[in-house]
Write a structure and sequence with these properties.
By secondary structure, the chain is α/β, with parallel strands linked by helices. 54% of the residues lie in helices and 17% in strands. It contains twelve helices and seven strands. The chain has a seven-stranded mixed beta sheet with strand order 3-2-1-4-5-7-6, with helices on both faces. α3 packs across α4, α3 packs across α7 and α5 packs parallel to α6. The longest helix is centred in the N-terminal third of the chain and has 31 residues. The protein is globular.
Length: 294
Amino acid sequence: MTINELLDKFFSTSAAFQTSIGISLDSGTVLVVAGLLNLVLALVLYLVLSGKVGKFFIAIAVPFVQASVPRVARNAVRYIKEHCEAGNPDLALKAAEAFVTSTSSMVMHVGDKKGELLDQLIARENPETVLELGAYFGYSAVRMSRLLKKREGKVYSLELNPACADVSRELIQFCHLEKSAEVFTCAAAEGIEQFRDRTGRDAVDFVFIDHWKDAYLSDLKRLEASGLMHKGTVVVADNMLRPGVPDYLEYVSKSPHYVTTLHPFVLGSRNWLESWRINEDAMAVSVYQGAENE
């Protein structure tokens, strides 16, 4: 059906509708409504043809997703506790994925596919001190801490949302990983500044960044300025393509202080709610080369 045919149908339907409910709109008003409809159709057509429809819907959905974050986090941990035994982090991770599939919830965790890369990196680097920016419901803290081999190995997560921090601690305790993971309720900037005082540790060996995207670069620079990172510290950042963090990716790709590798992923839709989303993402793995005076 062409735009003109659609408008003709709109005009005839509009007239019939007005008659049925006993109102009458002048032709000018109907023309304005038709014009607005035409603009909406043109916008949708542009978004589809340009391949931007996914990003458009992401932009629309962000405020609603942010408002639902604590509720979904609580539901995820409740589901995990109902569907697996305590003290088994591997089963807890599987239950988290089952929660996403079975409840059609939009869950902003790293997930199983990208989580496998985290597993490989933790196993390879064997870090003693891990810093996580953004805990959400504790999935990645559990994922990383369960693999720490050093006796003093520990994951420290910084989470701004108090409700998310609470459920993250709940999941960590349920998995019996209290000695290997700890969650601080604070902004990343505050947590980085107070890291030595809170933990008694002078350096971090591994950093996982998965919090607010517009804070990735500023918080990385805070870490540099703090002196917490040493030569060889590995920094992993999620969501390089979805929704994308171009300023961060450009910085770690061009800075002489990092050697960066981009790991792409093709992600299937885990439920109908995700079916419209862009199905490609990437994680940036950067190895810190030290400050100029190191």
